[in-house]
## 1
Amino acid sequence: MSDGLRHDYARAEVRAIHDLPLFELIDRARAVHLEHHPKSELQLCTLLSVKTGGCPEDCAYCPQSAHYKTPVDREQLLGVDEVLAAAKRAREVGATRLCMGAAWREVKDGPAFEQILEMVSKVKAEGLETCVTLGMLTAEQAQRLRAAGLDAYNHNLDSSPDFYRSIITTRTFDQRLETLKNVRAAGITVCTGGIIGMGEGVEDRCAMLVELAKLDPHPESVPINALVRVPGTPLENMPPVDPLDLVRMIATARIMMPRSRVRLSAGRAELSREAQLLCMYAGANSIFYGETLLTTPNQGPDADTELMRSAGLSAAPA
Ligand code: SAM
Ligand code: DTB
Ligand code: SF4
């Protein structure tokens, strides 16, 4: 309880919150939200894939896995200048954080990692918060990222420990927790969440939230993704996520992790404006902002500016 918040939720207790009558759930989540966060602010984070495709992992949802034939081609690590140009564009359209992703299983020491460190320090110098997601990380690598100016590290638990095994076989749930431990120990803020719509049950969704809330302190950011169904991946034919399932997940996460930023993440392009706003009313106060996520389309900045204007939301300061 180092943060004075609860880390010992039982799955049944979470299920009871999750399954409340919808308005009651939203009322509770909104009350928690208003107690801990400004009521009309949205954090705008831009994603950039700095190393795309050809990943050795077999994550069943992922278009970048080398195990599946998808529309995503393998690309080299971007140069520092290309990344800086993208960072400036992101800042100009209003983003406060740049999250750079690499389709790696893990970070390997060597020239590519040195280049990532340079990207981090230069993006930071542009006045943006920096986040990277590079796969597994050792304690030493985490410390080097911190020294380069890294603010946040994204590494998702993805699903419940049980369901995880049916989605990824090439690394374990415990290895994910180990990476998060290294990130926390280095003094980098933790960004970790998961995906719904992969065929998991509500019990799995609740079990994932239990695991996220066990982290002490709670993760600073909790991305909740709806599966983006990409042709060629094993999950391409999953039914679409019911937007109200997303609202329930976000509201439950908000109640369990009151101080965390809950991010309405992938899958937003398929949501109506009203569904997005309901997610935000229920506790989401961060979005991925930009034309693309890592490899798939996102609702662009113009639509987001319009959405924020219509609801009277403002961009959260860095
Ligand atoms: N390779 C690194 C890793 O897996 O840790 C970093 C990049 S990986 C693409 C980051 C996260 O994106 C995954 O953990 C997953 O939660 C999310 N993601 C990937 N493909 C997705 C999809 N099709 N729909 C929703 N979320 C997805
Ligand atoms: C997260 O939770 N979602 C982002 C980010 N963290 C790295 C990635 C979403 C990827 C969606 C599929 C794609 O565009 O490749
Ligand atoms: Fe690789 Fe990350 Fe995609 Fe898994 S989610 S296949 S580790 S890029």
## 2
Amino acid sequence: MRIGVLTGGGDCPGLNAVIRAVTRKGVEVYGHEIVGFRDGWRGPMQGLIQPLGLADVEHILPLGGTILRTSRTNPYRNGGAEQVKRTLAEHGVDALIAIGGEDTLGVASRLSEDGVFVVGVPKTIDNDLSATDYTFGFDTAVHIATEAIDRLRTTAESHHRAAVVEVMGRNAGWIALHSGMAGGANVILIPERPFSVEKVCQWVVRCLERDDAAIVVVAEGAVPEDGAERLAGAEVDAFGHKRLGGIGNWLADEIAHRTGAESRAVVLGHIQRGGTPTAYDRVLATRFGVHAIDAVHEGDSGVMVALRGTDIIRVKLAEATVSVKTVPQGRYTEAEVFFG
Ligand code: F6P
């Protein structure tokens, strides 16, 4: 078989580990030919193809980003399944492995219904895909954010300050929840729970009164009870997502204004997505790659590999992309014990 691999949507540490695993097992164990499509779904739309041999994947396991590059292209906006099918036929590609988040896998799901042989691999630092317990990239992002919180605590403490740390998380507050808990944050704000600015200020004052720093971790998609989400720009991407950002700076100003406390905001942004994956993410990504090529080899189209407990299972792509996995109330209640 000739099998194409692509990475779509926001990049994420661990993508190269999947590409390596697919290629190693595909070539060495099954004797298939593996090719890469560049730039997400733009690759199969425009025939941007490159060979993927054993030498190409030799030292990419610890590399962040994606050697295939990525984009937020939506084939259903232009050409659709027919164009993808034409490219695959032209290049003699029998099946596709699509590594992506809700948007990339949503496209994979539709393509599979439209007759393309496709297997999905879940990735996102946001960890918001409901069919899998964890996505690779999340652990790395949480480590980066936790280290930042640890560092901010000592400087904020020295200056009797509030430090507001804005982390990624559009619809789901997983990064904020985990990094906030790991870093001992004094307040964690997530998109799932509109927050009271007054209450946040009370927690901040309580911390500062006992000579502690006040560390507030806020997800980019968090909203105040009587406000709206903060946008970083007016544009929307090919999947209709607005670009979020700005809640951290806004909240730091509100805290300073309402309490008189010195406040600083730090936006971690894309630093959370860059650099080498943690050992956990390397292992998870490698296992996903191995199981994805197994699925293709066995002719199991329209599925996504997923982590359930410690096992890698297969779920239907259609089910996997139906809803976003948000933080349940119970998980937030656990974190609230440590607020203030
Ligand atoms: O991939 C998910 C994500 O990192 C979100 O957390 C964030 O809102 C978005 O991507 C940022 O996208 P971009 O890289 O296009 O600015």
